[in-house]
Amino acid sequence: DADVTQTPRNRITKTGKRIMLECSQTKGHDRMYWYRQDPGLGLRLIYYSFDVKDINKGEISDGYSVSRQAQAKFSLSLESAIPNQTALYFCATRRGGTSGLTDTQYFGPGTRLTVL
Amino acid sequence: AQSVTQPDIHITVSEGASLELRCNYSYGATPYLFWYVQSPGQGLQLLLKYFSGDTLVQGIKGFEAEFKRSQSSFNLRKPSVHWSDAAEYFCAVGARTDKLIFGTGTRLQVFP
User: Do B41 and A104 touch (CB under 8 A)?
Assistant: First the structure.
């Protein structure tokens, strides 16, 4: 089984709809991240969480919200989806503690979201 | 401002040929540098990373990268490319702020 799973893998929705993307991990990692990937722009950080009670905005958090329901679960919500939120969304996890950025981020397979 | 530049959007090589993917970064402090690969329909997988020490870093799948501070570069190399290496490659820079800044990616196409 995959260590980092994302559901759904594909979603088509309409403008104005509320959408939730879910991420689960079995790696026991403290830190979780949400990125979006757009062609020609690479990956950009939306939100990240150091633990259940510590959530931080990334560089492009406007229009998104997150919920860290448990150590293993980190959900991304689009309260009112708009077409320019059409993208590939990735969840990632990393071990926390004093090891710093030397630890690898592990990525899920991605969710392709289309907003019509 | 921190940034990562991958000047080549798309590279095509023949199977068995050598490969070099370029990455330049702009960062005020000592950077942590990474190369990730994304195969079609897959998430990103770490190929290698550099934090300190030997500037030539070995990774998985036969890849290596060399950190050149004077050129602000961290180019990825492979001596002989396999068809299975066709993918998109991302360079990233990070620091103790726990954030990674990704380049825009280089798509590698391999011809038989």
Answer: no
Residues 6+ apart with CB under 8 A from B13: B19, B81, B108, B109, B110, B111
The residue length of chain A stands at 116
For residue B12, list its beta bridge partners: B109
CA atoms within 13 A on the CB side of B23: 31
pLDDT in tens, A24-43: 999 999 999 999 999 888 89
Question: What pLDDT digit, counting tens, does each position of B86-95 carry?
Answer: 999 999 998 6
3-state secondary structure chain A: CCCEEEECCEEEECCCCCEEEEEEECCCCCEEEEEEEECCCEEEEEEEEEECCEEEECCCCCCCEEEEEECCEEEEEECCCCHHHCEEEEEEEECCCCCHHHCCCEECCCEEEEEC
A104: contact with B, CB 8 A cutoff: yes
Per-residue pLDDT of A89-100, as tens digits, reads 999 998 876 555
What's the whole-number mean pLDDT along residues A72-84? 96
Rounded-to-integer distance, Cα A19 and Cα B16, Å:
45
Nearest CA to B92 out of B42, B64, B50 is that of B50
By Cβ distance, the residue of B9, B44, B98 closest to A101 is B98
Tell me how far the alpha carbon of residue B50 is from its chain's centroid. Answer: 11
Pick the most confident of A35-44, B48-57, B74-83: B74-83
Does position B2 have pLDDT exceeding 90, yes or no?
A: no
A35 to chain B, closest Cα gap in Å:
10
